[in-house]
Amino acid sequence: MELVVRDTAADPQRAVAAVDELAGLGVVALAGEYHSVVGREVAARADALGLPFLCSSAVLDGLTEQPTEWVARVAPAQSHGWRIYADFLLGAGHRRIAVAVEPSVYWAAGVGILRDYLAPRGGTVVEFDMRALAPTAVCDELVEKGATALLLLVGNPEPAVSIVKAVRRDRRLAEVMIGAPAGQPEFAEWVTLLGGDGAGIPFLRYLPERLGPLGVRVEAALRERLGEAPSFVAFEGYDTVAVLADVLRSDGVDRARIAESWPHVAVEGTRGLIRFSRTPGINVWQWAWPPVQVADRDPAAPGRFRILR
To answer: What region holds the Leucine-binding protein domain (predicted)?
Structure first.
């Protein structure tokens, strides 16, 4: 099996061009994509071309507009993880929640999921439009609105890092929880840029409480190769390739046969047995579900993670 790599650079147009190029080169399947907005474009183009696409990390519920047989996904749908996160917020006593948000289909979907889950349970969501507010102005808005939690629905490292620094330095906000459901604190760069200020910020990660034997072996191999502990995204990538390798071994390299195999997959991944099914509201073949944690970095040792839920 030959792996042909193209960098989408988080650019939807560049991603579509990469799909066209790879299809023209005769690839039998596509794998990957971290960014949800870009993943949606990859999925749409793969569907149009009749090219199997196994999505590793993009979580947007609406990965395709219409049901498709060509696309399957290892990552959980955004609505699944973000409802778990919303429930965590309620359990921690937060009822008035602010979101610092930038324009994006992904962030808008996240706000909608949070609002729909929290509103019937007595919670409210207040939006701060980061096109109009500087990080220091966010602090004043938090005080004025009386929010007890601020969620970062913004790009990383900026403006996320600047917002965290501003809130941490404002004594009026000492009791305000900062959260990052999209997972920004998972990555080592977060600690490099923020140090201790980046700890104690709950986020979603898609790992079990304890890895099984395969997960332990893969974690050790990735740690040696990367020179640091792998993120949950690395496990998503490994599981994606493991599924594709199994499909190619059993069903060959015909594109249509690969797509037809999605509902018959049963592959032991690093985080559990991977099977794809039709899930209400999701138009692709979906692993329902990978394990989901709410975690943060330990304030006593920011290089260490704590599982909060």
So the answer is: 2-279
